[in-house]
Amino acid sequence: MEILVVGSVALDTVTTPFGDAREVLGGSATYFASSASFFAPVSVVAVVGEDFPMEALEFLRRREVDLTGLERRPGRTFRWRGEYGFALNEAKTLETQLNVFAEFHPRLPEPYREREVVFLANIDPDLQREVLTQVLSPRLVAADTMNFWIQGKPEALRQTLKQVQILIINDAEARMLAEEPNLVRAAKTILGWGPRSLIIKRGEYGALSFSDGGWFAAPALPLENVYDPTGAGDAFAGGFLGFLASTRNFDEANLRRAVIMGSVMASFAVEAFSLQRLQHLTYPEIESRYRQFKQLAHFEDL
Ligand code: AMP
After folding, report:
1. 27 lines ligand 1 (CB under 6 A)
2. Are 4 and 45 in contact (CB under 8 A)?
3. Which atom of ligand 1 is nearest to 237's Cα?
């Protein structure tokens, strides 16, 4: 199955306790596509400005990511500036410049309308829905969002959630969205708004999945080298949906395997700044880390 993603393609400026990166390649759609493209064909819908270095996306083209839906418009590219403390679990946004995204209304290239799996990556919830209405008959729609939209466009976000089957957000976002500090209660509230599954990412503490089929907890791989958590969530979503699209199976057991594959891809994303690790990743490395995850959570009963 082919995947369609709408999200940001960005220039990020990031500070972590281990260093800085200025105006480097980032964006929710970029991280998602570079991760998902290991598993399934990916088509991107996004916009960049005249200042965007298009050659930075060459590695995605080489991975056969379809960029015909990436428009280049007069103006400046979306920019995000953030920093992380020692805990690394939550980004502090210092600045968000929507720039060309402020006036963007995507028109999907005709072949994109046939896509069966859709990922509404972190972007304006109105844009997420604009894309969705142009897709003819999606079989699986998943979405992400963040505090910027939860606080800035709560009504639009609730509308989007009605059309989403799987919501993938982090723990702080789940609490903020549901206005409920307890994660189990927050999950119940959010599942009442439309999605049939909710995946809550908890950074170095792993991920939880809540759905009718029950709850599932995946660990995060204890890593020795973590440099930049930016994009971990999108890399997770890419591994998760890429796995589901490539196996064409959305049942509970496969959803759990997909959560592990998401965790595998997130574990690579954080090992270097920007997309450097995902850019140079190989499929055998992914397989080997998947096996490591299996061992990490395996135990024999008495
Ligand atoms: P993640 O760390 O997985 O949540 O995603 C980080 C990426 O999201 C960065 O590369 C940013 O460029 C992008 N981003 C940050 N804020 C926004 C926003 N308000 N809308 C869309 N993308 C954003």
Report:
1. yes
2. yes
3. 3
